[in-house]
Amino acid sequence: MGIITHIYSIFSLTIAYIYNLIARDISTLIDIPKFMLKESYTLSINNWSIVLPLLFFSLCIYWLSLENGRNWMKNYLIPVSFFSIMFLRVIANTLLHIQKNFTFRAVLELSNSFFVILFMGIVIFSYLIRSSPAKQAKGLLESFYPISVVIFHLIGATLLATTTTSHYVPHIHLIGLILCVSGVTLNVASLWQLKSSFSIMVEVRKLVNTGVYRFFRHPLYTGEMTHLLGLCLLFNNPFAYSFFRVVLAMQVSRALLEERKLSRHLPEYQLYKQKTGFIFPKLNILSRLRPAKCRDQNLGEG
After folding, report:
1. What is the C-alpha separation between 107 and 97, in angstroms, rounded?
2. CA pair distance 241, 193, nearest whole angstrom
3. How confident is the model over 194-251, as pLDDT tens digits?
4. CATH pick for 110-282 out of 3.30.413.10, 1.20.120.1630, 3.30.420.150, 1.10.10.10
5. Distances in whole angstroms, Cα of residue 37 to Cα of each of 28, 42, 97, 266
6. CB 216 within 8 Å of CB 280
7. Which of 27, 173, 266, 291 stands 20 to 30 A from 160 (CA)?
8. Which residues, 6 or more positions from 101, have their beta carbon under 8 angstroms from its beta carbon?
């Protein structure tokens, strides 16, 4: 139980950190856009007065709760709070950066923000409606590791956006925006199909094989990595590309962990694996070119 407590302590710290960022966004939002408010207001916020009570409240409730209470926090309260804070932060950041001149790039940027907000909303909705797992996550690899991948991804993207220098190249920047919009659109489509089966930790719920899941097994990770690649192209610096390679390796290993658990507990998953690609759709070009008799023989062998 001590390890699980530390895991969710880290989660609570992350929530507090992002909540702090939102507070600064809102204070800036109220101060800057005079064309919206017509007057200049300032909001003085003591950062620690926001972070410490939230952190203390989260940890105390978790440590003092009974087992059922902890499960409720783990499966609902903490993830919903986390993604709700992210949801509000993206909205605040989008309002800060709305441009009056709608060029093609501005439309792409606004589309990216819109789909990110939509994605966060569906994540929150999925947590609220999802069923209990048939098989829960066990051990560090199935519980702590997936959470650490998410936290590493978020913190790395924040560092990329706030501490590194962007090397602007027009056509690379445009490709990056297109990849960002494409990736987050795939995320929205994937998550809408997944909904009640969505989980960050490695858990077993109902197999989803409809929508984009008819073609490949991990479209959500494909969308995330496409979006991250687009983000890295926007900044176009060595840290960005190194960060992308690390996150890609972590996401692939995370997907393999999920496949191992699903194959062990869902008999129909093996057939699903044969019909679909891993993180990209199967083209099946070679099988179409081969004679029908050979294909029938190979099917008989399975």
Report:
1. 12
2. 30
3. 988 999 999 999 999 999 999 999 999 999 999 999 999 999 999 999 999 999 999 9
4. 1.20.120.1630
5. 13, 12, 15, 56
6. yes
7. 27
8. none
Contact between 128 and 198 under an 8 Å Cβ cutoff? The reply is no
User: pLDDT digit string (tens) for 244-256?
Assistant: 999 999 999 999 9
Using alpha carbons only, give the angle 203, 206, 212 rounded to the nearest 5 degrees: 100
pLDDT by residue (tens digit) across 270-300?
999 999 999 999 876 445 445 544 434 333 3
- Chain length of the chain: 302
CB 183 within 8 A of CB 119: no
